């Protein structure tokens, strides 16, 4: 389940326009990372190929990028899980909008720069507006990073095309 | 203490060559963020101006960038604090090399995209190879993000110009 066809719709393809500018995962951000997340059974999966300049030191991936991958992938998973929980079609109105409340990243070992990174997330708990998710980053079949995200659902009117 | 002259030497200017490629703070990374950190009394300070494309949604800074700023600024502060602790000149050999063991980021409120961001860090504890730091991000005099980093000192021979 690692390689999706470009035409497959990711969680982020269903985001409302105001969320499509995100540097991490917005489809409309020309400079961004374009993280794309999909269901893979009960987990969600994003596959990401870092650029050669995304390094911490020679041969290893930059930690801030790894934090970014976990962040966007988990927030996307929180939104997708909310649709699934309510039995609604992804992207149907009113849209679910989540932001990151907190992000915890544990770097277990250096992540090699070269192989595609597999970012997996799992919903641990949905409690009202808050969704707690756990995540891993795997390179060459080795888990190098573990993450935990608290995603918070926000009212639709808090984000507009023209804020603040 | 917010605006340093370009010729002032930051913590990162004293990094050994193998650390100068970091996407977040390496002076030699042409694509990177070039985070620059300085002492400001007992705290350390970095001032960063996000690019217009560093957004989460219109008007607000991308969370992954904020995590990256805290990460690199704290790891740089850990190295600078180690030199200070030993009464050694910054950059003197053998060089201190720190990596991020864990990173916790709490997003208190959205961070406006526009004003320069002030990232402040403070050493909370130095315990052997581990240094614990707390950090804040301030925009327009309002603290929008709090962070906590455990930086870990690694032996010099673990990082080379040609790893892995």
TrEMBL record, chains A, B:
Its EC number is 3.1.2.2. Keywords: Apoptosis, Cell membrane, Cell projection, Cytoplasm, Fatty acid metabolism, Hydrolase, Lipid metabolism, Membrane, Transit peptide. It catalyses: hexadecanoyl-CoA + H2O = hexadecanoate + CoA + H(+); decanoyl-CoA + H2O = decanoate + CoA + H(+); dodecanoyl-CoA + H2O = dodecanoate + CoA + H(+); tetradecanoyl-CoA + H2O = tetradecanoate + CoA + H(+). It is a peripheral membrane protein. Residues 59-141 form the Thioesterase domain. InterPro entries: HotDog_dom_sf, THEM4/THEM5_acyl-CoA_thioest, Thioestr_dom. CDD domains: PaaI_thioesterase (cd03443). Its main location: membrane. It is found in: Cell projection, Ruffle membrane; Cytoplasm; Membrane. Belongs to the THEM4/THEM5 thioesterase family. This is Acyl-coenzyme A thioesterase THEM4.
């Amino acid at each position: 389940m690692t390689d999706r066809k470009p035409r497959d719709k990711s969680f982020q393809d269903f985001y409302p326009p105001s969320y499509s500018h995100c540097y991490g995962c917005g489809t409309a951000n020309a400079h961004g990372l374009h993280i794309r997340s999909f269901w893979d059974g009960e987990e969600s999966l994003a596959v990401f190929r870092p650029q050669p300049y995304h390094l911490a030191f020679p041969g290893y991936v930059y930690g801030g990028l790894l934090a970014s991958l976990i962040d966007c992938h988990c927030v996307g998973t929180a939104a997708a899980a909310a649709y699934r929980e309510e039995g609604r079609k992804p992207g149907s109105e009113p849209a679910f909008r989540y932001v990151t409340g907190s992000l915890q990243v544990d770097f277990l070992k250096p992540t090699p720069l070269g192989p595609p990174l597999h970012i997996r997330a799992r919903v641990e708990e949905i409690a009202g507006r808050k969704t707690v998710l756990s995540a891993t980053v795997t390179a060459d079949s080795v888990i190098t990073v573990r993450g935990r995200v608290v995603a918070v659902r926000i009212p639709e009117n808090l984000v507009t095309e023209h804020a603040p």
